[in-house]
Design a protein that fits this description.
Helix content is about 50%, strand content about 15%. By secondary structure, it is of the alpha+beta class. The strands form two sheets. The chain has a three-stranded antiparallel beta sheet. A two-stranded parallel sheet has the order 1-5. The longest helix has 19 residues. The relative contact order is 0.19.
């Protein structure tokens, strides 16, 4: 079996929460809201139960992480220095303000985001001994 890395999977990795889990049984990524926990023993926590049935948390890649990677690759030293001091939502807002002012940022953010996410998911798969292929 192989995990198919496609646009749907990219979206699940960017959810920003731990709601998606990978199943070793069928090589799919499932939303925990859709999982049946009826057979979970009362004295067992939800995470322990999920792991016991062959599930592991799927990778989460935040917008901030992707944009920081983009800045490190494309941004000037001045811009990197400015943005390194900012965290969280303020970072995202500040980035978009600078995006229009810095010509080096104009090209390639969408392509970078896809490539970055592909690489992070592939790396996560390798770390967890999961066979995968790209769509």
């Amino acid at each position: 079996m192989e995990l198919l890395i496609n646009s749907d999977l990219l979206n699940k990795s960017g959810s920003g929460s731990s709601e998606y889990w990978f199943s070793y049984r069928d090589y799919t990524v499932k939303n925990i809201r859709d999982l049946d926990t009826g057979e979970k023993p009362e004295d067992m926590g939800q995470t322990t139960y999920f792991v016991s049935i062959g599930l592991i948390p799927f990778i989460t890649i935040s917008n901030e992480e992707i944009i920081r990677g983009f800045i490190n690759e494309k941004g000037s030293e001045k811009l990197k220095s400015i943005l390194d001091k900012i965290q969280g939502e303020e970072f995202i807002d500040t980035f978009w303000k600078y995006f229009n002012a810095y010509p080096e940022l104009k090209d390639g953010i969408d392509e970078f985001s896809i490539e970055y996410t592909h690489n992070k998911i592939a790396s996560w798969c390798n770390e967890n001994n999961i066979n995968y292929r790209f769509e």
